[in-house]
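I am hoping you can look over what I have pasted underneath with an eye to the fold:
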Amino acid sequence: MTVLPSVVSPLDGAQLVQMVVKSHKQAIVLCDTIITTQGFINKCAAPFEEIMDEKARKDMKMNSSMFADLSDKRSLMGATGDESQSRKEERKKKAAATSKSGGGTQGREVRSKAVKNKFKGRGGANKDSDDEDTPPVAATSKTLVFLRLPEIVEVIEKLPQLKDCSSVMCEEIAARLERPLRNKYQEIAKSLFMESSAITPGGVNKRKQQAELEEKVNALYSNIKLFEKSVKLIADDEDLQTNLAKYLLKTLCSELFNATLTSLAADHMVTIPDGAFDTLEGRAKIISNLPDSIKDVTGKVHTSLNGKSLEAFDEALLTLLSPKHIGILLKKSDKKRDRQIQFNHRMTLIEQLKSENADGTGDAATVFHQCVVVLFGVVTQSMLHCSGRMIPQIVKYMQPHLSADNYDLIFTCQDLIIQQVKGNIPADDERLLDSLDKVKQLAFTLKKSESFATA
């Protein structure tokens, strides 16, 4: 204001500025005397775009519950039209209930008029007396907030174009940007939510994912139940039975639960870090971030995977998959389908053995492992799921079910493989390769009638 005569007050200067900008629609006045444009204000918002994306992703990890209802418009707005309509209906009912006076046939209707309160000030004067019983609708606690006004000011003050500007001007620019920035941040957060939850306006992707999850869960569960039969079959070797049950829980059962937990985490906006399923602690941390309504049930399945009881896992899983929680329908056991699964399992192993035989690839221990699994299926008519360390115990279990010559052939090959693993003989030892080839041929040709299989 130093360019104006001393008799002109700051108020006079502000009025002169307002007179000048009246004919300029794009002009914006800051601090009463500084003229700028909306374009300049928008340029000041540019640095916040990167901050928005980073903050939205961080909030999704740290405060996932804030995003749980983001797809609902109510999370971005305060009151809804439905709530407003319900309040209107309540007032109508209340007015109808108190509109009659007197009693019997002499009663007459009296329409009462609401009394305005002159002392409530602006905003309260237009509300009738019934509204006093109805508390104002506050903004939802889950409304997303980008940055507070002081935080916006702090960012703006660092902009090169505002380097020599006063803090008051920066505050006014921040005040003009606060609402647009919040709205834009909410849109970015909503977009990230849709992307991470695979939700489209029509919900097509979500339904497709649910169908794929149900198909995967049913396939894994059917295999688990068939592998469980072989575990129960080995009742005379408690140590082997326990090891088979533990291995099944740590592999296929864990895979089924991980697929289910991934879907639950997506539904409740719980972020799954890379490698979270590699450790028990990582999976437990994911479960701890789930809502209380599902946390306990999910935790029981997780606990059962660390035990040795397939029955405990089955019970906990069925509770989790029930309509009360996830709502996945498991298909009933079907003998025809089970036989087809067993046949496909055996043929897959045989095809793998044939391909390894054709190209000469494959580790001897792995090939022998596959042969033993195929032979176990022939002599017991069941599917086996085991680790390489259990193969010697499986071979010993099969001895009563095999002829002496076949057992000796398998046992000799096993002994040579153990020597090769220990480094006592080379991988291309002629005796080892010859013995392994004979075991493979036995796996291809052995029939149930040639074994001493017992039901």
Summary: The two ends are 104 Å apart (CA to CA).
